[in-house]
Amino acid sequence: MNNRPDEAPTEVERWGKFEIVFQGPEENDPYRNGVWFAVFTCGERVVGVKGFYDGNGTYRLRFMPDRTGRWDYVTASGIRELHGHTGSFICTEASAGNHGPVQVKDEAHFRYADGTSYHPFGTTCYAWIHQPEEVRRRTIASLAGSPFNKIRMTVFPKNYSFNASDPVDFPYEGSPETGFDVQRFNPAFFARLEGHIEELLALGIEADLILFHPYDKGRWGFDRMMAEDDDRYLHYILARLSAYRNVWWAMANEYDFMTEKKMEDWDRLFAIVKVEDPYGHLRSIHNGTRMYEPQSVVMYDHGKEWVTHCSIQHWDVTLVREWRRLYGKPVVIDECLYEGNVPFRWGNITAEEMTHRFWEAAVRGGYAGHGETYLHPEGEIWWAKGGTLHGESPARIAFLRRILEELPENSTPLFTMRQMETLGVEGEYYLGYFGIHRPAYFVATLDEMGAYRADIIDTWEMTVTPVDETLSGTCIIQLPAKPGMALRIRRLQPVSS
Amino acid sequence: MNNRPDEAPTEVERWGKFEIVFQGPEENDPYRNGVWFAVFTCGERVVGVKGFYDGNGTYRLRFMPDRTGRWDYVTASGIRELHGHTGSFICTEASAGNHGPVQVKDEAHFRYADGTSYHPFGTTCYAWIHQPEEVRRRTIASLAGSPFNKIRMTVFPKNYSFNASDPVDFPYEGSPETGFDVQRFNPAFFARLEGHIEELLALGIEADLILFHPYDKGRWGFDRMMAEDDDRYLHYILARLSAYRNVWWAMANEYDFMTEKKMEDWDRLFAIVKVEDPYGHLRSIHNGTRMYEPQSVVMYDHGKEWVTHCSIQHWDVTLVREWRRLYGKPVVIDECLYEGNVPFRWGNITAEEMTHRFWEAAVRGGYAGHGETYLHPEGEIWWAKGGTLHGESPARIAFLRRILEELPENSTPLFTMRQMETLGVEGEYYLGYFGIHRPAYFVATLDEMGAYRADIIDTWEMTVTPVDETLSGTCIIQLPAKPGMALRIRRLQPVSS
Lengths: 497, 497
Known about the structure:
By secondary structure, the first copy, chain A, is α/β, with parallel strands linked by helices. Chain A has helices spanning about 30-35, 135-145, 185-200, 225-240, 265-275, 320-325, 350-365, 380-385, 395-405; strands at about 10-15, 20-25, 35-40, 45-55, 60-65, 70-75, 85-90, 100-105, 110, 115-120, 120-125, 150-155, 170-175, 180-185, 205-210, 245-250, 285, 310-315, 330-335, 340, 365-370, 370-375, 410-415, 420-425, 430-435, 440-445, 450-460, 465, 475-480, 485-490.
């Protein structure tokens, strides 16, 4: 295969993937020396992009256009075969369901590039891409039927409790027996990874891609590579994957458990990701917790400029406001304990507790993350391998997602409703959650000029029960004195703003 | 009445109350100027004690002997009638059930003066002594049938939601209509208070006496007296009550909500209590919480030398170890939300949640406090007025108390059992609690030389189910995968230490 630019696609939708391919030299360490660029131009907009070596003498270069219209490009390289190619294509309107990459909207929220608001409802299947084909097919089918629009997944294989088998393939040339050449990538592995990212894209799911993790423990050695090999890996994966609009860069999982790396290493790796990604995909880093002090965690400073949002492991989701105050960025508690029954404390809460944590985080303007860890005869546990969901929390999380997506665009955490954590728009819309609190009644302080209707929401039974009266001013709403109740109050005639 | 020293009791049991009474002048502000002392001597032990004016020309002086044998005393005063009296009495062994005052044993625990360990199981009835006789009788009867061995109660009346009626009497001369003379005490009120402290003593209940609180809001003015009047009040109550062995000094409830007082005021008041109490009764101060940040509380520095233990309001009882590390003193979370259904968030959790919080604190080497706030047709709510207990948590708290009191004397929080918060003695005795965690099994790491038996404890059902096998070394214990379970593991042949 050796397509010329004029054989490249002539039309690509906005935030789609444009790709050109050339043949070039196979010798002289092309993964490092096969450097080539393209400059894409559309009106005054200019974007520089790097290509990568895909093995067998094949060189690829990918680009994600962010505006419609005609784009022209020219390639540059010290390698003759890759230099000086020019071409153009037309960027068409995004197709239905394509809202572009997710970005940070403000200090509390996310949105898609087209302005549509995005509420992350994430789950975790760390090593799902490393499982046999049949398991991966079930994982995708499970995700299709789930409320999840984000998934945390690792590039490197995982060696951990309930997850000790070798992966189907590796990112590098070599084998567990012979060892790995961490300077020569395995393009087939990355092509497979890209296929899975496209499967997720088709489901509207963001791939929160974990670039490094400690769950190797020296078995394959990917958790303790030389700094230059870490850098090479980042340059390569950034060149390959940045053009996929649903990729997020999760620098590490439990970064502080990777004892071979220092804080300077993490800062350096973040800087590389920020510089090498032309599109500014979201960047975060996730901390570990200590056995006996889940509340005393070693948090990376999410205030650093290259961190776009807080990716937090913590067992107290009510701290959302503290973290936002501390870092001024949206808060995603990707790990706040998982629904399951394994002996580990991070993985044995009830579906009720998992649901409760999603609501607690949501009404504070943050987002909890899902994971499932039920013991399984064949050791197939969702959190590690994906496969099939068994828990009862996803249905409740879907219920919450519907309710959150009905919120007005400009909703924020409010502090005017006493005795209830509330999200909404002052005077117009209030969504509150009582959690472990179960008052027999609630005193709402509403605009005396306004008319409101209230709904009592049972977050576990997934019922919405309208209060059979129109409310105004200070009024008392009777409640079923049981835990897990939410209250929604909406103005009948919204004030035109 | 004008008894001479030789009319005073000739025998008093250890930690009992010895009292002498004289008649003296009624004029010239005897509450301030009626200063008199006695020096008590027993061998090389010498204790100086202050007397107080009890109205109608009566002056009293009380003493709590802390060792058996003959005590001699002599009085001294600028007032002729009170000066130079001498006498003696025999201090006999403490009677059954009299273990002396509670003291701090170590950085985590309490004990009675006779060495018996004391685990505080407190409840809160702030204004119970201010209620009508009939309610007070029911309060005492309820306490007699309860697991509680400590009660938080205020000296000053309370003006707050569900607690707005005037008290039966006041600590000062005057009335709500005419106002109060805060320089002239009402001896009848204090005599009544003393009677209630004696009723509690008979039930083995410590009176955690709240000296100041903000729930007056200027209605009677006791929350905003001049500094000299605060001091006079402390001197008076210390002279009257210090000889009662079951008195604890709680400097304030929600001290930080008393906006008229500064930190220097609290330090000064603490210094007075420490200096004027010859027996060193326990001293603490209790903080308030903010509506929307229960976790960001303004804690008094419990590390200050006059604070004997931490009296904390916080909604996260799992922070016990953090506070102990910070202050190096025993931790009592007197307020961690109450069982009830009132609209206030501090008072509407379930009995299950209240029980859960007691266990969470206990296995970390701390102690939670109980309160009950169920709506009541006549507004008689235990937390404010006492009366009758309606909740389901006291029975579970009694169950926990029995289990804690079976612990070996030298039990401490342990860190060797992974995945379970544990209290006990390494290698010999483990009491763990899983809380919201519900593992299907637990991996115990026991001494391979030892033989152990385990009990699975359901903290809500109050059942203890022995595991039907002898355990040793690393072993797996199957568990019912449900929340609220505890596990007790005891060595069959304790190692002789």
